[in-house]
């Protein structure tokens, strides 16, 4: 077995070829071409189940219910939405397009949430018509908009208010500031002393509308979080706001959503958040906080995306060129970095260029006894920042035609892909029990030209 950051069902044949979900990557490349996003269905299902059962057990133990929403922004296809549902997850969407996929997958409206800081009238209407279980509102303007559209349709819209707690997390630490300088949510901190906080004002505004039903409060603190303390700190703030609202309005809201952000392993040796540990920590902490506040426990929900689909994905490329480049280093000796160009790049994975994200790559179509060398895997785009893997050791005999795989690309790869330089986007191919199946076909030049009306 190969181990993290590869999908759990990954291994090597005796001749060195990588096998994902029981399928040899050489067969995948021959059948589907490269680049291709490969998704290990069993790995996805296993992580979906692990999150659901860990949170159900931990929250159940303190007497609270919990729902797990799969955050579709990480990767949503009809089959992926079905897998999530079959594993007992609900689906969190962030646009009309994501909502359309969830509905095509026949996820019941009641099990869908709709997010977004600037939902259009059309998106809200569609959500109301589908009977979505929750619309997470993000501003006073939007509260009025949803109320107006619900009134127009003669329905009551179930809403949660997205708040910012001042707790911000990501990477290996969290920070807490009073005033968050970002577009999402409504702050629990008043603009000046003695004033109403934007979060409380929004909650009270929702209660004024008979067309809106206030389900609860939503908080999402960041992404790729490794330190669980941030979740607990944010939950404490949200639960206090819930108690304050009960004091102000007499309504103790039923639900609290703690958002997503659970971190995964991208590189060998990285430690992912353990769902069981983090679920236990959060459950015990929220139970203690509710006891302190003298309120009953709400029903909780969480929205993991990356932690479910990230590790299940591998991107398969073909090496096109190999070029040693002499690099002069400040004060040190010159060294050689070998640039290995593959047939995709920043159009199929923008994360290294956008966030400086680190990935791991290996040559996967064969074994090699050559020494390893410092390499940089780059794409084929007209841009020097088109880097797939900044630094990785590859066998020194890497050559054109080699298959190269990048691990842990399941989340925010295909979902953030572009057609830069008119590159058609790669297919999403599911592997399971030794067979492969195309979930989303490769784009063609005709697809792209079809959009251009000349
Ligand atoms: N819930 C809400 C309200 C969110 O905004 C997000 C992510 C999630 C859940 C899911 O977070 P996850 O569990 O996947 O970390 N493109 C960036 C990540 C952006 C995340 C935005 N919101 C990346 O590639 O790292």
Q: Care to describe what's here?
A:
The chain is α/β, with parallel strands linked by helices. It folds into 2 domains: 11-33 and 312-451, Lyase, Ornithine Decarboxylase, Chain A, domain 1 (Beta Barrel); 41-308, Alanine racemase (TIM Barrel). The protein has 12 helices and 24 strands. The strands form 4 sheets. Strands 4, 17, 18, 19, 20, 21, 22, 23 and 24 form a 9-stranded mixed beta sheet that branches. Strands 5-6-7-8-9-13-15-16 form an 8-stranded parallel beta barrel, surrounded by 7 helices. A 3-stranded antiparallel beta sheet has the order 1-2-3. The radius of gyration is 24 Å and the shape is globular. The N and C termini lie far apart (52 Å). Ligand LLP binds at residues 71, 73-74, 92, 115, 220, 223-224, 259-262, 303-307, 351, 355, 411-412.
Please describe the topology of this protein.
Blueprint: E1 11-12, E2 18-20, E3 23-24, H1 25-32, E4 36-40, H2 41-61, E5 66-71, H3 78-86, E6 90-93, H4 96-104, E7 112-114, H5 121-130, E8 134-137, H6 140-153, E9 157-164, E10 167-171, E11 173-176, E12 186-187, H7 198-207, E13 212-218, E14 222-225, H8 229-249, E15 255-257, H9 275-293, E16 299-302, H10 306-309, E17 313-327, E18 335-342, H11 351-355, E19 361-363, E20 372-378, E21 387-395, E22 403-407, E23 428-432, E24 435-440, H12 445-449
Parallel strand pairs: 4-23, 5-6, 5-16, 6-7, 7-8, 8-9, 9-12, 9-13, 10-14, 13-15, 15-16, 18-20
Antiparallel strand pairs: 1-2, 2-3, 4-17, 10-11, 17-18, 17-22, 19-22, 20-21, 23-24
The chain binds ligand LLP.
The site of ligand LLP has 21 residues, from strand 14, helix 10 and helix 11.
């Amino acid at each position: 077995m190969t181990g993290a950051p590869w999908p759990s069902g990954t291994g090597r044949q005796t001749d060195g070829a990588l096998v994902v979900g029981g399928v040899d990557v050489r067969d995948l490349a021959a059948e589907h071409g490269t680049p291709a996003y490969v998704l290990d269905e069993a790995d996805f299902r296993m992580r979906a189940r692990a999150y659901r059962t860990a949170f159900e057990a931990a929250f159940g133990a303190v007497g609270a219910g919990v729902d797990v929403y799969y955050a579709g922004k990480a990767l949503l296809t009809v089959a992926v939405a079905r897998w999530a549902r079959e594993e007992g997850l609900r689906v969190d969407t962030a646009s009309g397009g994501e909502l359309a996929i969830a509905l095509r997958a026949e996820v019941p409206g009641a099990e869908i949430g709709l997010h977004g800081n600037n939902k259009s009238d059309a998106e809200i209407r569609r959500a109301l018509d589908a009977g979505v279980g929750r619309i997470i509102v993000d501003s006073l303007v939007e509260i009025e908009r949803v109320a107006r559209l619900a009134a127009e349709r003669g329905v009551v819209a179930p809403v949660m208010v997205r708040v910012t707690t001042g707790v911000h997390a990501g990477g290996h630490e969290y920070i807490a500031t009073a005033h968050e300088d970002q577009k999402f949510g409504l702050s629990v901190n008043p603009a000046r002393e003695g004033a109403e906080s934007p979060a409380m004002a929004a909650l009270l505004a929702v209660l004024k509308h008979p067309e809106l039903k206030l389900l609860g409060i939503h908080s999402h603190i960041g992404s790729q979080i490794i330190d669980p303390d941030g979740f607990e700190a944010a939950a404490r703030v949200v639960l206090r706001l819930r108690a304050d609202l009960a004091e102000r309005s007499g309504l103790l809201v039923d639900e609290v959503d703690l958002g997503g952000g659970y971190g995964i392993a991208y590189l060998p040796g990285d430690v992912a958040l353990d769902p069981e540990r983090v679920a236990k920590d959060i459950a015990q902490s929220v139970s203690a906080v509710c006891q302190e506040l003298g309120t009953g426990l709400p029903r909780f929900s969480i929205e993991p995306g990356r932690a479910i689909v990230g590790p299940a994905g591998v991107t398969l490329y073909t090496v096109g060129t190999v070029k040693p480049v002499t690099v002069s280093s400040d004060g040190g000796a010159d060294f050689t970095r070998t640039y290995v160009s593959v047939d995709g790049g920043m159009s199929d994975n923008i994360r290294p260029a956008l966030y400086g994200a680190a990935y791991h790559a290996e040559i996967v179509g064969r074994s090699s006894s050559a020494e390893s060398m410092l390499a940089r895997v780059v794409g084929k785009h007209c841009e020097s920042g088109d880097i797939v893997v900044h630094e990785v050791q590859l066998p020194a005999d890497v050559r054109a035609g080699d298959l190269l795989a990048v691990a842990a690309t399941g989340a925010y790869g295909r979902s953030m892909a572009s057609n830069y330089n008119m590159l058609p986007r790669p297919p999403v191919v599911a592997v399971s029990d030794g067979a492969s199946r195309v979930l989303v076909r490769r784009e063609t030049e005709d697809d792209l030209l079809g959009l251009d009306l000349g």
